[in-house]
Amino acid sequence: MPLTGVLPPEAPPARVWQRIEARLDGTVATVPVPRVPLGSRLAFWRGLAGFASIAALSLAVLLASPSAVQPPILVVLTSTAPSAGGAVPASFVASISGDGRALVTRPLVQVGMQPDKALELWAIPPGGAAPRSLGVISSSGATVVRKGQLLEGAEALAVSLEPPGGSPTGSPTGPVLYAGKLTL
Fold this sequence. Notes:
Blueprint: H1 14-25, H2 38-64, E1 73-79, E2 91-96, E3 102-107, E4 118-124, E5 132-137, E6 143-146, E7 156-162, E8 176-181
Antiparallel strand pairs: 1-2, 1-8, 2-3, 3-6, 4-5, 4-7, 7-8
């Protein structure tokens, strides 16, 4: 209590004494207690809750709406050899993903191959530029080719007959058996 001796005495407000006397007498205090309306005390929290609700709803709409997906591109690679006796020439179908990063090839009719040969898929750029190898493909089933931007600068696809494992030179060494034009 030595610290209280340094401070000057201060009289409490009259309403405090009135409430103390009312409690001691057992009666209800008649002095009005200033009250802050509940609405003004909750204004900040209501604003914050409203903002959070709008943000959550916006995020839900953003996640629920799918982005535009490009449809796949379909290329038919037909035989470059003339058909003999009215026979239907073998052909390949190449389905390219909308973003151009994956390609699936499948022969429409099983292609008879010699065991020491393979089929290699090429992307042909315009203007007679050197073709780009997209890899060896199957002559009997589906083949998935995954490379970045397969269609970049290509105007056609071609399949050539190569040694097992593909072309050793990086350009076609055998005859081109199938070809198809890209139309975007």
